[in-house]
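Renewal narrative, Specific Aim 1. Our central claim is that a sequence can be written position by position from structural information alone. The example that follows is taken directly from our test logs and has not been curated for this report. It begins with the structure tokens describing the chain, in the order in which they were read.
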């Protein structure tokens, strides 16, 4: 039999694996990563790049600083071979090797034991067989192993073909795999959105079963931090809506983001083509992917609408929904253990998202608005407004008033006028000295009063003038303070 015929007739999966192997051999891996693998292989041991590193190289996605490697060495043996290591997950056989900027997560080949709680396997069982190690992995596209030293690619589940066809497929029986670890449905949603790939029919059918009674998938057992990480991954994807819709199909949106799920079917008014839920998704898709604050705010900006809806002349009105929404958003983000700073920034945008602007606003009015919103948040708030407009589904034009507003703000900032107390030409020490008051809330109140004056008349932010004002106040003259 001719070789070309033999190779070709092995079928499309084998051919895809061959193509993948060729590409991985030609890939330019970071030199320190190759050094780590070579070091692990010393003495006849085995080491493979696995998981995201292999998958993302084949997809031509930019690699992060973190690589996953599997090996037959025990964690203790890995530790012995490197100077800088952190035993991050010893119980699961994982050691983090640090080489300059590069982080290599080295995990001993293992097969998974029984799961009795859908969270962690009861026992971790080591193996010498890299194929067994691939069997425990969740998706075929994540279950390839490549040894850059030998150029060998292991692809027992035909992940290379699935990658080419942009198809997510479970390793083994999907519902069974979800029962072992209830984080997996969330991972499927995250990978579908992040990699822009479609779950195959079996995986989709299993997703639909996840929240059914008696499915055996203990969805509530997943720690909020892990849910948060997967949701953050979905929100960083090109189109988060694909991942969020999969979560909804799996009944997981109800479980993890009920405030959003209940927006479905809440109809709006002539300014919107979508209900509140689909508008939220469209807004989120339209927000800049590299700004997690704006993506979260876009997703949550209208979650106050179901509680505030009042029908007038057949149309929905949502008076004060931004304030109700900000409170709901804060509680939701805290529940998901989102870091405090991110939570505060998102909540702030939700609260301020209804801002209104008219050309006849005075400079003082604009300065007051800037002070409330904070100069750091203005760009994010504009991004949110643009996304909100794009998300109404009516193909209305770009909100052009933002352009005038932006120009005016730029000019105000260039004039470097005072917007916050710390911009004033005097400080708390001056207030205490001039007024003869001790430290305390009164000092802050006096500074705020000076700022109020300066917001109206920026030219008065000079040391000379402000000290004179303080002296007037001390003397009991010069108007309210
Ligand atoms: P990325 O790092 O880009 O998020 P990744 O695929 O590398 O993607 P990791 O969470 O770093 O994801 O995990 C590395 C590999 O470990 C995965 O590719 C997969 O093979 C396996 N894996 C991780 N979590 C699970 C899980 N819950 N169930 C089964 N396999 C998993
Ligand atoms: Mg990874």
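The sequence written for that structure reads:
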């Amino acid at each position: 039999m001719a070789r070309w015929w033999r190779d070709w007739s092995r079928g499309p999966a084998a051919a895809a694996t061959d193509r993948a192997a060729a590409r991985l051999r030609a890939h330019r891996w970071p030199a320190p990563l190759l050094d780590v693998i070579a070091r692990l292989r010393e003495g006849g041991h085995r080491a493979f790049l696995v998981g995201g590193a292999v998958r993302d190289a084949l997809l031509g996605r930019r690699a992060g600083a973190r690589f996953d490697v599997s090996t037959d060495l025990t964690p203790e043996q890995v530790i012995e071979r490197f100077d800088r290591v952190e035993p991050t997950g010893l119980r699961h056989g994982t050691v983090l090797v640090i080489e300059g900027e590069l982080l290599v997560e080295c995990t001993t080949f293992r097969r998974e034991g029984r799961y009795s709680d859908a969270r962690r396997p009861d026992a971790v069982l080591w193996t010498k067989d890299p194929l067994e190690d691939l069997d425990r992995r969740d998706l075929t596209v994540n279950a390839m192993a490549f040894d850059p030293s030998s150029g060998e690619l292991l692809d027992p589940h035909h992940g290379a073909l699935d990658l080419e066809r942009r198809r997510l497929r479970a390793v083994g029986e999907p519902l069974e795999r979800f029962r072992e670890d209830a984080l997996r449905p969330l991972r499927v949603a995250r990978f579908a959105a992040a990699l822009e790939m479609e779950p195959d029919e079996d995986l989709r059918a299993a997703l639909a079963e996840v929240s059914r009674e008696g499915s055996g998938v203990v969805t509530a057992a997943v720690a909020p931090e892990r849910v948060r990480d997967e949701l953050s991954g979905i929100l960083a994807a090109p189109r988060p809506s694909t991942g969020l819709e999969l979560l909804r199909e799996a009944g997981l949106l109800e479980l993890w983001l009920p405030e959003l799920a209940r927006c479905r079917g809440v109809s709006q008014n002539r300014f919107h083509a979508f209900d509140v839920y689909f508008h939220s998704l469209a807004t989120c898709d339209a927000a800049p992917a590299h700004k997690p604050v704006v993506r979260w705010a876009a997703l949550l900006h209208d979650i106050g609408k179901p509680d505030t809806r009042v029908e007038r002349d057949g149309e929905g009105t949502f008076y004060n929904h931004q304030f109700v929404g900000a409170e709901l958003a804060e509680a939701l983000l805290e529940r998901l253990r989102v870091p405090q700073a991110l939570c505060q920034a998102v909540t702030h945008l939700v609260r301020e998202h209804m801002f209104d602007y008219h050309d006849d606003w005075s400079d003082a009015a604009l300065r007051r608005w800037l002070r409330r919103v904070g100069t750091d948040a203005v760009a994010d708030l504009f991004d949110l407004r643009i996304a909100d407009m794009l998300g109404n589904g009516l193909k209305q034009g770009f909100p052009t008033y933002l352009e005038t507003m932006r120009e005016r703000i730029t000019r105000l900032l260039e004039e470097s006028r005072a917007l916050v107390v710390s911009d004033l030409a005097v400080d708390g020490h001056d207030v205490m000295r001039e007024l003869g008051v001790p430290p305390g809330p009164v000092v802050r109140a006096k500074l705020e009063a000076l700022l109020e004056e300066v917001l109206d008349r920026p030219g008065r932010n000079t040391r000379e003038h402000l000290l004179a004002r303080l002296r007037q106040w001390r003397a009991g003259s010069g108007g309210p303070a």
